[in-house]
DNA sequence: AACAATAACACAAACGTTTGCGTATACTTG
DNA sequence: CAAGTATACGCAAACGTTTGTGTTATTGTT
């Protein structure tokens, strides 16, 4: 039997309500002398609060849920770190739930869990939620926000980078460095992220009056292997002089495969990645990237959720920047 | 107002107990006809169970907690995937809590959370728990297990790789490939993992009658930067012909720095890593490693916790293997 | 036909908190 | 000094479930 508030009350010769108020620091409800006494007794008895009971009685939980894809990408850590950074300062607990990879069953289960636990908010990270899951989440009324993810307007509030801008800026950078034939690797045509980036790419090309060969667009996801196979598609004598990869891992796949073909990066082929995680700095050559600030995305998302003025949460884009490293060169 | 079991009972014209039993599938307590009816009404009303109330009343939760360091290492993902694999099949929820990096405050908070929530078990991943946290966990009586972590005997049950064997096997491999002067990089002398690996290293060296120069042992942790600075310590003309790094990232740090010194790996220096995560396959040269099966560690740990024959949990080592890649050569 | 046994359900207590309200006591104020 | 007002605390209901123990019908047995 665990020691409860009741035991503490009895031992301290006060009522349970007093113990409750002391232990949860409801100011102006007790004399500091009583408080000290109660706290001491509680400590002596080894009292541990039962969070379930508390949440049940108070109708509010202090836990934030992060629903995340069992992502092959590697920026989730940074987002989570950002979330923890502000959650911790605010005294909230964070629970993380994996929702698999395009796995509606697991998604439903994760969403069901957050609803059953009536968490105070949920952050959906790098995940396009299925319609089913999304609508249960919406009807539950639990505040939620999408982080770094497909942000079709009707989805709900999001904090992310502007994927259109990402595609546009990357392309523009390469064009301005003399590249006219630019490959785009790993974009998922089914996803919002992918199509946005592709549109940005096309816009930049058009703006500079450059034709796009559809053969330069090799779809895929965010994996290393997608980079490898895409480069295999381009072959040993690629028509393109530069490639934009959908993630750091994908870029590495491209570079590895290029190397296997005897192609020097960046001497014979420039490769640029999207994300700019630590991988771009430890890999050789270091990889020029469109860098997103994932830590800030996490921070901003958490802050938005915690911000309790009851205005609806504002969606926003966080700035991206291009970081020049050694995988690209001026033509 | 959320719809409760009471509302369902009223709408279905049965008692709350019946609804409860139907919805939680307590066999032999109701007619299947009633059950169908109740389930339909519940669905129509959009009933969502309140997990807090249920856990409170039944004194048992179905959530498994994973306490993890905000790890700079990168194998945690695989362990978590393994945990999820068996937890999901078993119908358990998993919540992940970050406990920072050697941060007693965060550790305490994480442990406090799992105790307050009275989870059914906790998996401590790659984390040496402070005495304070450990003893609260122990007195709480919550089943727990350490995964891939410092496993001093008195800590409690663990599932991990045998760090002594890791140090020993890595060293032996290099010796048998003709290396006599072998560096050991990134071992933390304060940690059990580090000292075990060092002991294994020394034993292998002694076994082959090789002297150890203390200068070859460069302490550190598991980071990329530790690899870089260690290699800087060895300098442009290292005395050692091979280096064992404490993690894949550390190995990459070593190789990058070596390359900056104009040293070819493996032509002029062999580098071997411990862990064998995906990094060793995407980096060039691919990295020979002592490979741990983190996914299985996760699976085994979770299974051990869930296994409810009430014998105490058995500690065990999972096998390691050496995977030869391109960062080492025969001398 | 009488009775026991079982199936199907309802009642109500319990889980450990929080919190609105009530009530003494002590302290102001005119 | 009476009346009003804080202050400090206790009482008890409520939160939404689970579950042990009744309480009826229904079925089976002799």
Describe this structure in words.
The structure is a homodimer of 331-residue chains. By secondary structure, chain A is an alpha/beta fold. The first copy, chain A, folds into three domains: 5-49; 61-160 and 295-318, Response regulator (Rossmann fold, 3-Layer(aba) Sandwich); 163-292, Response regulator (Rossmann fold), CATH 3.40.50.2300. In chain A, 44% of the residues lie in helices and 16% in strands. Chain A has helices at residues 5-12, 16-23, 32-45, 51-58, 76-89, 104-116, 131-140, 163-176, 192-207, 224-234, 248-260, 279-282, 294-306; strands spanning 63-68, 93-98, 121-125, 144-147, 158-160, 182-187, 217-219, 242-245, 270-275, 288-292, 316-317, 320-323. The radius of gyration of chain A is 25 Å and the shape is elongated. Chain A starts with a helix and ends in an 8-residue tail after the last strand. The A-B interface holds A 46, 48-53, 55-56, 61, 70, 80-81, 84, 88, 93-98, 106, 109, 112-113, 115-118, 139-140, 224, 249, 252-253, 256, 259, 278, 282-284 and B 46, 48-53, 55-56, 61, 70, 80-81, 84, 88, 93-98, 106, 109, 112-113, 115-118, 139-140, 224, 249, 252-253, 256, 259, 278, 282-284. The structure holds a DNA duplex (30 and 30 nucleotides).
Kindly give the count of domains of chain A.
3
Overall geometry of chain A comes to elongated
Largest interface: A-B, 41 and 41 residues
Quaternary organisation: homodimer
Question: At the third CATH level, what is the topology name of the largest domain in chain A?
Answer: Rossmann fold
If you compute it from the alpha carbons, what radius of gyration of chain A comes out, rounded to the nearest whole angstrom? 25 Å
Order of helices and strands of chain A: HHHHEHEHEHEEHEHEHEHEHEHEE
Distance between the termini of chain A: 74 Å
CATH superfamily of the largest domain in chain A: Response regulator
Strand content of chain A: 15-25%
Please bin the fraction of helical residues of chain A: 40-55%
Strand order of the largest sheet of chain A: 2-1-3-4-5-11
Structural class of chain A: alpha/beta
CATH class of the largest domain in chain A: Alpha Beta
Q: What CATH architecture of the largest domain in chain A do you see?
A: 3-Layer(aba) Sandwich
Low-confidence stretches of chain A: none
- Count the DSSP helices of chain A: 13
Largest beta-sheet details of chain A? 6 strands, parallel
Q: Averaging pLDDT over every residue of chain A, what do you get?
A: 92
Beta-strand segment tally of chain A:
12
Protein name (chains A, B): LacI family transcriptional regulator
Keywords (chains A, B): DNA-binding, Transcription, Transcription regulation
InterPro entries (chains A, B): HTH_LacI (IPR000843), LacI/GalR-like_sensor (IPR046335), Lambda_DNA-bd_dom_sf (IPR010982), Peripla_BP_I (IPR028082)
GO molecular function, one term (chains A, B): transcription cis-regulatory region binding
